[in-house]
Specification:
Serine Threonine Protein Phosphatase 5, Tetratricopeptide repeat, extended, two-stranded antiparallel sheet
């Protein structure tokens, strides 16, 4: 039984409260900063930690104070408030009220800056959906950039979430490289049409947020994919949900593959082999040597020697045949062998000559040099375009003989079909009969279903050609 009377008990409780209040004030006191320097004098430990680890969500966002969302925020219901704003954002998008859409999206992320799905969805929405609502290519490019910029802001607020870094790389790679507007977007990425990014009067420069160093879009994507993998190394697979790990990690190598492919397309033949050599090494020596975990958490490595397969089988405690099965299954799933062989073939000087011949043939045809000429002695001289196309046929036919496993379908067959399509067009416009035999006849005859695609590509590439002789 307590010996303290009522007055003494109250006094003891009061002293206890004061003693406990001290640590609470010390830990919870708000820190103040002036010019980036901490002025709290040791106070505000929790506030400093929230700032250091970017865990604070003190802002209420730019929410209309009279709206239903603000009522929910004031009740502490940030999640439902963000849901209401999501619905408003969709409504503004349907009404094409772009300024209100942007403001609403900003409010959402201020309310829930660490909810990763918001960043992923709205970044995708701006880059893929909103951009399609515009007719002019430069307007579409603006909204693609807005989606990428949105994701970049997401990486700044969520430094330990690898998937956001990966998505910046994926958006940059896909929108600039494989979208319908890729021809313009890739150029705009380095030379933005917005006058405010001019480096000098009349000299276009890149947007410093999406391309601070003015690099090729695939190299910028490579940097973001690399950062994503580094984050994954540091933080594990946190934030990689929704994407198979073995596909997530191949981002840097695939970006370098795509970059290498554009060298010959741009006529940069001196860079072609070096770029593919770099891509091959990234695929084989970096990505291929990473450790992944498959079914039952068994470790495997895509680029494995026989000795490494035995070592991994011992580590996993499984028979060698089972290790080989896991390895082969994932080789097929990732198409690892195809991309290995593709990069290896592209390093062959014969492939460089094949791509160079086709590039020069296209250039000649589109410049109006696809017409035969009559020489000074009255003899017929075939056009420059046909000369290059004859060389291209020869080189591609030699490649097919050398690497038959790469010519069953896919890009190489498409390239051969396109060579023949140009070659047939040259004969047609010169009113000459097509020879019964030619180097790529076997491929042309055996891929009849690929002819419509070849014709479609030909028409797209030649729609602005010169018709002068």
């Amino acid at each position: 039984m307590s010996k303290l009377n009522s007055k003494q008990s109250k006094l003891a409780y009061g002293i206890g409260i004061i003693l406990l209040l001290g640590p609470i004030v010390y830990l919870g006191f708000p820190s103040s900063q002036t010019g980036g320097a901490d002025r709290s004098g040791g106070l505000g430990v929790l506030s400093q930690m929230r700032r250091d680890y970017d865990l604070g969500e003190a802002t209420l966002g730019k929410v209309d104070p009279s709206s239903a969302a603000m009522n929910l925020v004031l009740l502490g219901l940030r999640g439902p408030a963000a849901s209401v704003l999501h619905l408003k954002a969709i409504e503004y998008q349907e009404r094409k009220q772009w300024a209100k859409l942007r403001t609403t999206v900003d409010s959402i992320i201020l309310l829930q800056p660490h909810y990763v799905q918001i960043w992923k969805f709205q970044g995708w929405n701006l880059a893929y959906n909103v951009s399609r609502e515009w007719d002019k290519v430069d307007d579409r490019f603006y909204w693609v950039k807005e989606g990428i910029k949105f994701l970049i802001r997401g990486t700044e607020r969520n430094q330990s979430v690898p998937i956001l870094f990966h998505d910046v790389g994926e958006f940059t790679s896909s929108k600039m490289g494989i979208s319908d507007e890729k021809k313009f977007f890739r150029e705009f990425f380095e030379k933005d049409p917005d006058p405010k990014y001019e480096t000098a009067p009349g000299v276009a420069g890149p947007d410093p947020i999406t391309n601070p160093e003015g690099k090729d879009s695939y190299l910028v994507a490579f940097d973001w994919f690399t950062k994503a993998n580094e984050k994954d190394d540091n933080d594990g697979a946190i934030g990689v949900e929704g994407k198979t790990h073995v596909f997530f990690r191949q981002g840097p190598a695939r970006a370098l593959m795509s970059y290498a492919q554009t060298r010959a397309e741009k006529g940069l033949f001196d860079e072609h082999i070096a770029a593919f050599d770099r891509a091959y090494k990234e695929w084989m020596d970096v990505y291929g040597k990473m450790d992944f975990y498959g079914l039952y958490n068994h470790k495997y490595r895509l680029n494995s020697t026989e000795d490494e397969l035995k070592q991994l089988a011992d580590e996993n405690g499984i028979p060698l045949n089972e290790q080989r099965r896991i390895w082969a299954q994932n080789l097929d799933m990732t198409n690892f062998r195809y991309w290995r062989d593709f990069a290896d073939v592209e390093r062959d000087p014969l492939m460089l000559e094949a791509r160079k011949s086709l590039f020069l043939a296209k250039k000649a045809y589109n410049e109006g040099r696809g017409f035969d000429r009559v020489g000074a002695d009255g003899s017929l001289e075939v056009s420059d375009a046909e000369k290059f196309l004859n060389d291209a046929q020869k080189h591609w036919a030699e490649l097919e003989q050398k690497y038959p496993h790469m010519f069953y379908d896919g890009d190489y067959v498409d390239q051969c079909m396109l060579v023949v399509q140009y070659w047939l067009a040259v004969h047609q416009q010169n009113s000459r009969e097509v020879p019964k035999e030619y180097p790529l006849k076997k491929i042309w005859d055996s891929n009849e279903n690929a002819r419509p695609d070849a014709e479609r590509t030909f028409l797209m590439e030649t729609r602005n050609r010169s018709v002068g002789g």
